[in-house]
Amino acid sequence: MKIRKFLGFLSIVFLTILVFSTANAAFGIRKLSLQPAAFEFSAAPGAEINNSFKIENEGDENLSHVFVYSTNVKVDKNGKERYTLPLPEENTLNSPASWVYIKVPDPTKIIGNFPFLDLKKGEAKEVRFSIKIPDKAPPGDYTTIVFFEARSAQATGNIGTSIGARVGCRIKIRVQGEIIEDLVFDRLMVRKFVIGDIVPFEINLLNKGNIDAPGSVLIRIKNLSGSVIQEKYLSRRSYLYAHNNLQFSGAIKAKNLGFGVKNFESIFKYKDWQGNTKELRKEASFFVVPIQVFYILLFLIAALILLVSFWLDARLKKKGEAFKNI
User: Fold this and answer.
1) What is d(CA 115, CA 104) in angstroms, rounded to the nearest whole number?
2) Helices marked H in 127-230 — which ranges?
3) Are β-strands 32-35 and 81-84 bridged in parallel, bridged antiparallel, or unpaired?
4) Contact call for residues 35 and 58 (beta carbons, < 8 A)
5) Tens digit of pLDDT for each residue in 110-149?
6) Residue 101 CB: number of other CB atoms within 10 A?
7) In degrees to the nearest 10, what's the CA dihedral of 205, 206, 207, 212?
């Protein structure tokens, strides 16, 4: 009986391995590598920049449609970057993705305005591109991400949504002219009265200048003495883009908060346009009550209300009896 169970177990293990191995063989692995991962250019308005990428198929299947497209970069309220395709009605000066022109090896390979190339297993190709800066582009930093995305020909209408294999290159373009650096800690909101160990917050950093500021965002909860109770990185690598803001909202859970007034501190540590490390700091205070103390207070208040109600009821009864005796 034990031998049968053991053989049955071995059969299940063998079948599981067989299923996964055939699944990998059937679907294959799609993997693209791109060099370089980032470019930085500096040029005057009206200039044209030319360079190239090297894209390689490191997967185990041939790729017939690797689409190439440039995107504008936006940051959502949680500090995450979102990539959007340039729209026809969008102002070109506000859409650096519109400045990029891709030159795939075979210029006839275009579907839905998206150029593409084919890559066999282990094959690498050079893809040239040019950047044409508008004549009236204001000075400052502009960022676009160029993506290489492996897709089937039928899926071209959903570029950038469901991804089989995708790699991107960040291109930073500095349009020459007057440099304006103006970063401010616009808002730090913390709930003034906190019950328990969860502290909600909202942060907004604002870049009024024309230069990007890459940096990290750290939050801390401290005692009035300055000792740190809890700290957390919201992001170790964020970009506070020119003429843009960087938002974070959420809550931090802190152990041993204790009772009384605490300080919430947020720090944005960044590199300025000359490469120097700088910091923006902002603090807000709040009052915390441990959840156990809160429940005890609720119990005491409820008990006090009951005692007062009993006392009032007894007084009313005595007055009622006094009226009856008149």
Assistant:
1) 7
2) none
3) unpaired
4) no
5) 988 899 999 999 999 999 999 999 999 999 999 999 999 9
6) 14
7) 30
Closest CA to 147 of 116, 122, 178, 173: 116
Asked whether the beta carbons of 115 and 90 are under 8 A apart, the reply is: no
Strand 277-289 relative to strand 193-195, pairing: parallel
Contact in structure between 48 and 109 (CB atoms under 8 Å): no
Question: What does the pLDDT look like over 256-309, one tens digit per residue?
Answer: 888 899 999 999 999 988 889 999 999 999 999 886 655 566 666 777 787 777
∠ Cα 96 100 102 (to 5°): 155
- The gap between the terminal CA atoms of the chain, to the nearest Å, is 96
Tokens of 317: 């009864």
Phi, psi at residue 2, to the nearest 5°?
Answer: -65, -35
3-state percent breakdown (helix, strand, coil) of the chain, nearest 5? 20, 50, 30
Q: Which of 155, 48, 139, 138 is nearest to 100 (CA)?
A: 48
Q: Could you check whether the bond before residue 36 is cis, i.e. omega within 30 degrees of 0?
A: yes
Q: Which residues contact 98 (CB under 8 A, 6 or more apart)?
A: 70, 86, 90, 92
